[in-house]
Amino acid sequence: MQIPHDSFVLVADGKKSLFFRNRGDADFPDFAVEAKEVDINPAHHEQASDLAGRASNTLGSSMEEVDFHELEEDRFAAATAAMLKARALRNDYKALVVVAPPATLGELRKHYHKEVEKRLVAEVPKDLVNMPVAEIEKILKAQ
Question: For residue 98, is it within any domain?
Fold first, then answer.
């Protein structure tokens, strides 16, 4: 994949997001970290106080327990998309590459603003958030 000079690259999952600027060129990317966000999101069983109850309605279905961990990951993705919108509206970037696991990518897409969509040049459905920067550059260049 060719990532143009000065492109904004977001590498995220449901708990962590890394924001890079490509200081290199399309042939030799050089990602500089601009920002890092980490969300404290314990496992569901650490957040839930009780197990879900069982109740029946007239259709015979039962209530299901809310997954607080998943809700927080969705909220984090929405907040990340809001940051992308704010930066797009300030013209902080002209080209955007988003790298995230498929579920996170899907949640981000739900919240993209039209200005973010106009700048989006690529989406990569991979989990690279815990990789070293040089490895992220190498993997994206090979895409």
Answer: yes
Distance in angstroms (rounded) separating the CA atoms of residues 122 and 6: 15
**Contact indicator for 42, 27 with CB cutoff of 8 Å:** no
At 23, is the pLDDT very low, low, confident or very high (cuts 50, 70, 90)?
A: very high
| pTM of this structure | 0.80
pLDDT given at position 41: 52
Residue 53 covered by a domain? no
Number of domains within the chain: 1
Length of the chain: 143
How far from chain centre, in Å, is Cα 100? 5
Three-class secondary structure assignment of 88-128:
HHCCCCCCEEEECCHHHHHHHHHHCCHHHHHHEEEEECCCC
Please state, in angstroms and rounded to a whole number, the distance separating the CA atoms of residues 92 and 83.
11
